[in-house]
Amino acid sequence: MALFKYNGEWLQERRGGLIGAILNSVVARNEQGSRVARRGRRFPRNLLKPRFFRWLLLLLAVLFFCVFATFVLKLLSNGNEEEKHLPLSGEVLEQVSSYDAPLTPPKSKRRKQHFPCEVGLAAAVDNILEPKNYMNFTQFSLEYVEREVNPHANSPQSRFGGYQTLNERKKSFLARNQTIHCGFVKGMSRLSSPGFELSENDKAYMNNCRVAVSSCIFGSSDFLRRPTSRLISEFSKKNVCFVMFVDEQTLSKLSSEGHTPDEKGHVGLWKIVVVRNLPYLDMRKTGKVPKFLSHRLFPSSRYSIWLDSKMRLNTDPMLIIEFFLWRMRAEYAISNHYDRHCVWEEVLQNKRLNKYNHTAIDEQFMFYQSDGLRKFNPSDPNTPLPSCAYLGAFLCLNDLYLHILTLCRTVSAEH
Q1: Where are the transmembrane segments (predicted)?
Q2: Structural domain boundaries, residue 224
Q3: Any idea of the CA torsion for 186, 191, 195, 201, to the nearest 10 degrees?
Q4: Beta-carbon contacts of residue 231 (< 8 Å; ≥ 6 apart)
Q5: pTM score
Q6: What is the pLDDT of residues 172-197, one digit of tens each?
């Protein structure tokens, strides 16, 4: 409000007329609006009461319980439908009917816990010595089919296992000098490739390995588990080859996770070997190549150890070889499964999990039985004792040709 001076005194100016009325109304509205605005900022008192929070928490708990109950019921119903519609062939049902294990085992609420068994390994690598006379076995020479020249092969395309006939497979059981199909078979065309291609540098590295520890990850199906370096002796670090086979997809994933190979291609103790042009679309089938054909991938190696990609090596490999091969005078050692000890059980489990086509499983299963496969009988005194090796581990002496014949037949029989 303006002031004016009258007779030496300052007095308030009183505005009259139309302009004064307008100004006075504007001032009044501004003062009233500021009061309303200040009142509007106040938080409702009802929301601050404890009763409101209790009702809100109760409502959220009811909603969570309804969603969780719906999810559990849906999960249980899907599991029952899969078991109800599980197809089994008549031949397999007839052979499994006499087995004690039920087709649908009861579901356990608690997951089984398995612990490693006690193994009497040597205290240190310095205390072990390779025996001179390992064992007596038949000496014979083996050659491998490099290129398919079989006139009975109807397809000129390359096939990793080749086109082995049933008659050739039958003859391969004989311990004699012969040439057999054992993977890496090129087609009749000069430009054909069997697959599982490696770089020349990796081949040179693997040709110099005397003891090999290998594993594989294809299709980014797992993550890398490095051997526990502090539990591996300096002797093994210098004299044992630790090779991890991967494809380009897995290599890219490992690099994104921080497992980038160094200048020599190592990630920890693992030597990363990249495989190109995979021979099979099924990654599990491709994984059988390094698992069974270590004698082809490591031609100069005398001993080899295979590890499943879900395992971590926590023991010196030379101590494992000394205990299971040298001390036991064994050709090879295969780990015993924790839960299943019979192929009949494994057939049913593969069908329950729908790992493969059920008809193909039946066909392969009947083929094994025609080769003389018999049902496992734990009460039979002639049954070999279960192995105490690590689950997923496979050890072998690569110089034993009878053992090589078995592995080659496994890869060549592509049914």
Answers
A1: 52-73
A2: 128-336+387-397
A3: 110
A4: 314, 315, 316
A5: 0.68
A6: 888 889 999 999 998 777 777 889 99
